[in-house]
Amino acid sequence: MMAKRRIKTTVKYVILIFWTLVSLFPLYYMFTFSLKDNREIFGANIIGLPAHWLWSNYKDALTTGNMGLYFMNSIIVTGFTIIFTILFSLMATFALERMVWKGRKQVNAIFMLGLTVPIHAAILPVFIILRKFHMLNSYQSLIIPYVAFALAMAIMISASFMINIPKELEEAACIDGAGIYKIFWTIICPLMKPAFSSVAIFTFLQAWNELMFAIIYISDGRYRTLSVGIQSLSGAYTTEWGPIGAGLVIATFPTLIAYLFMSKKIQASLMAGAIKG
Amino acid sequence: MKKKILSIALCLTMTAGILAGCGAKKDSDSGDKKTLTMWSIATEADNMHSSYLKAIEEYEKAHPDYKIKFETFENQAYKTKIKSAVAANELPDIFFTFGGGFSEPFAKSGKVVELDKYYEKYKDLLPEAALKNQTYDGKLYGSTFTTPVSMMFYNKAIFKKNNIEVPKTYDELLNAVKVLKKAGITPISTSVKDTWVLGMLHDGLTLKSAGPTKLQNALLKKDGQSYNDPDMLQSAKDVVELKKAGAFEDGATGLSNDEAVQPFLDGKAAMFFTGSWLGGDVNNKSYNKDDFGVAPIPVVNDKNATLGDFMGGASDTLMVAKSSKNKEVACEAAFEIAKNISKNAYLEGVAIPAWKIDYDDSKVAGMTKEIAGYTTKAHSFTLWFDTLLQAEDANKYLELLEQLYTGGITPEQYVKAMADQLDSTK
Amino acid sequence: MGSVRNNKKAIAVFILPAAILFIVIIIVPIFMSAYYSLLNWDGMTTGKFIGFQNYVNLFTDPSVNFMKTLWDAIILAVFSVFIQLPISLGLALVLAKGIKGERFFLSVFFIPVLISSVVIGQLWLKIYNPNYGLLNAFLKAVGLSKWVHTWLGDEKTALMAVIVPILWQFIGYHMLLLYAGVKSVPKELTEAAKIDGATSWQISWNVIIPQIKPVIRMCIIFAVVGSFKTFDMIYVLTNGGPAHASEVPSTLMISLIFGRNQYGFGSAVAIIIIALCFIFAIGIRRVFKVEED
Q1: Cβ-nearest to B254 among C128, C244, C255
Q2: Nearest-CA neighbor of B396 among B419, B413, B415, B418?
């Protein structure tokens, strides 16, 4: 019995470690890629360590355009996108899952449409709408569509967490005389922390890496985001890939940190047993 | 509780206010200066970037009342951006675009300015023939600055080692391919995944088989010239013949342009057919310059074409938006800046000028000057198929060319399908 | 409680911010696209109203071969649901049960999701490269030279070659969602089952999976809808080629709208993608009924 168990554990770890290597490889690849020149990237040395560690790629990436500004813009756009997405989706989910009204099932279904729209098909219509509202070339010309496109996913994630919150909690609060806003604020919100983190991670990924809206709705360099900035490291016909790799490392770094932070939050909130059956 | 909600509401309105404030900040024209906005694909990483910057600087110096706000975007994404901007009427004052079929709908949309009367002033410096790719329905819609052409780049060292002369005819090219193949060297590196790279060779051979008049008539659907013609068939057959002779590396269908050009630059492949911009790259980068040579694409049928017929031409274009608030100035600037870019790019050795050379060019780097030597004596320019043709035809052409290469269709089927496609969009 | 849950004003306050954004940015554009899909329009000059001709052409024009792109998307969706999701679920279950290094593995397995598709795409180009690619080198090393292949450049293998990286990249994505789901299963339930003598396999199958049905349902919806909208990786690896072998509806749509200037025609593809995704999403919700729905 013990022996069998040990074999099982060993197999489990072998698989996990194998998958760890497979998952870490792109990180290694991105890092070495960022220190090579085209000659190594395309042929001479595709996965080995760089022959010459070209730290100058980082200098090129950082001194091209105004990367510091682009970085700040990305943080502003992504930050507000996350805040509004969490807030609006949580409110909407509460109304859809916990309030009683006619047509809520239909409204719930309609929100799923947000998952289905291909971003490229929306470029021109959204462009025309933003133009009508005089919102081009500003942070909100990205924040508004990002939030709108993230809502469907965020509402689904929030709903799947809210289903597990027992209704008795709200009913007890209600008997104690709490109003609906208070119930939402003091009962639901604290219990939804793990959902916050999940929504935050996925919204972050979408907004941080988004390219098409960012390149088309922003023509003014002052509001340019990092993903567009990195893209402009490629030339019209020929491209040095090393600096692009460096730019991507710089862009991915905050993603990793944000993720580690959020995943810790998810875990902590789950571990605390916030949700009791 | 109410307080909390109130504070949230307050927070929200405040952030909204900040955001609105950020967006509303208008381009405050510094002093009395007026601003012209200009878009292009010459990103900071592009070898044309500094030519643009210098050109703009020169323009601003000569026109102290105006300031150019220059924004650049990556090539592929820019194509989407510029089309969307035309659709939504959000164009900047001056913008870069591609001549030929790509910009035809821009001209038709009525959102760009006709430039004929502004061109008068520059007639002596910019030959009218250079502007045919910016002319739609007899009216001029753009200025131009460089003349990229397809060239045959080759490795001098490899040629020498195998006793190969630079091929001037198709037969010599085929022969060179056979010799190189036998010696175990990849004769021609190309990308079929980025089909336009293979197009550089195919278009060149077609031109050298049919000649400029016949080819242009067929592509522009003029004078009843069909693409289904023995001369077009010949070049399609040649591409297949080259492939059969082992001219291209095995995996060309799976390679991108970046992946295909590298073996050539590393001296592992003997030839690479592409635009003259590669000359600029060879000049400016750390490759062994002396190893590389450049020559016109070999002639297939000397009754129809010569070495002096070139695939390519002035396709880089500057257009002016009708919605511009300073239209008159912008139109003049489109020519002035184009003139300056033409000069600067040539002096920096990154591009072939479209404007007359009225300055000292003795210091221009080797390969670029060599190519300019060919193009100034050129008999004709024919724009690449995928640039000259309108979008629908261009896409179909690239698709058919890929199939021709993989053997999915025969050369006969290929020319017939091309003719059918061109007929269908007449 | 009933009257509190009925509070009309509160409902409006909760739902309106999301609803307004949603209507302006999602619903209105869908209607605009639907209108465009009835035009013969290049996106820039004046369009011509042609009724449903674009839709007819979609299914009859052999050069577009729309049915084939749908097929490709369905193949991708099937692989996602039956290969990718089970792997994600397996990893989530193993990790959530609390093994040594749980947080480390959780973090690492998510890394492919975090890295830009540009890098992932470049990496897979290196794996598939016909001359120096890792896959061909591996095959040669283990004596399977005859399997050596131009993976992305051959019509027979291109589709599978792009599907593998897409599946691989998003395993971590679903794993994280499922992990949070598994973690939120009340401990009392699993412990009760343990006391009854259930094996860990039985606990997973009989206790945890039924409990996380809403999360699994959501993952299936994301996977299927994602398959019909997938674009990035295919664009980098093959751009739908060679000869449309790896074309999916979204690559076709983009090449129609922005490549071939057939905005109306491309919009018709968009509307079909939206309709299909919506039908699938609703259908999956129905099939996986969760109480209360």
Answers
A1: C128
A2: B418
Identify whether C7 is part of a domain: no
Q: Cα(B320)–Cα(B113) distance, rounded to whole angstroms?
A: 6
Q: What CATH number is associated with residue C263?
A: 1.10.3720.10
The partner residue sitting opposite C7, judged by closest CB among A96, A113, A180, is: A180
Q: What is the pLDDT of residues B144-201, one digit of tens each?
A: 999 999 999 999 999 999 999 999 999 999 999 999 999 999 999 999 989 999 999 9
Q: Measured between CB atoms, does A228 come within 8 Å of chain B?
A: yes
Q: Which residue of C has its CA nearest to B90?
A: C44
Name the amino acid, one letter, at B158: I
Question: What residue spans of B348-410 are helical by DSSP H?
Answer: 366-376, 385-388, 391-406
Q: How far is CA B308 from CA B150, B167, B204, B297, in A?
A: 12, 14, 12, 9
In chain C, DSSP finds a helix count (H) and a strand count (E) of 18, 2
Q: Is the minimum CB–CB distance between C65 and chain B shorter than 8 Å? A: no
Q: Tell me which chain A residues have a C-beta less than 8 angstroms from the C-beta of C184.
A: 161, 164, 194, 270, 275
Instruction: Calculate the alpha carbon distances from B209 to B171, B195, B203, B302, B308 in Å.
Output: 12, 20, 10, 8, 13
> 40-79 in A: which are within 8 Å (CB) of B?
42-44, 60, 64-65
Q: CA-CA distance, B90 to A143, in Å (whole number)?
A: 20
Mutate to test the interface with C, among B8, B185, B189, B193 (most CBs of C within 10 A): B193
Tell me which residue has tokens 């975007």.
Answer: B73
- What is the full DSSP assignment across B30-85? -TT-EEEEEEES--TTSTTHHHHHHHHHHHHHH-TTEEEEEEE--HHHHHHHHHHH
- Over chain A (277 residues), the average pLDDT of each successive run of 10 is 79 91 89 86 79 87 85 94 96 93 90 90 94 92 96 92 85 86 89 85 89 92 91 81 88 83 71 45
Instruction: Let me know if residue C52 belongs to a domain.
Output: no
Domains of chain B as residue ranges with CATH: 34-147+313-356 (3.40.190.10), 150-310+384-424 (3.40.190.10)
Tell whether C94 is covered by a domain: yes
Are B409 and B400 in contact, with CB atoms under 8 Å apart? yes
pLDDT score recorded for residue C1 = 60
- Given a cut of 70, is residue B9 above it in pLDDT? no
C16 closest CA partner among A92, B244, A125: A92
Number of domains present in the structure of chain C = 1
To which residue do tokens 């239909």 refer?
A106
Q: Are B158 and B299 in contact (CB under 8 A)?
A: no
* CB-closest option in A89, A144, A248 to C118: A248
Give me the domain span that covers residue C145.
61-287
d(CA B127, CA B247): 38
Q: Where do we find the tokens 């919204």?
A: A203
Q: How far is CA B23 from CA A67, A98, B253, B279, B333, in A?
A: 20, 37, 47, 43, 28
Mean of the pLDDT values across residues C233-253? 88
Tokens representing B269 are: 């492949």
Of the candidates B190, B194, B237, which has an alpha carbon nearest to the alpha carbon of residue B412? B237
Judge residue A185's burial from the number of C-beta atoms within 10 Å of its C-beta, 0-12 exposed, 13-18 middle, 19 or more buried: middle
* Neighboring chain B residues of A123 at a CB cutoff of 8 Å: 80, 84
The whole-number pLDDT of residue A5 equals: 79
Say if A245 is an interface residue toward chain B (CB within 8 Å). no
CATH node for A64-232 = 1.10.3720.10
Whole-angstrom distance, CA of residue C194 vs CA of residue C203: 7
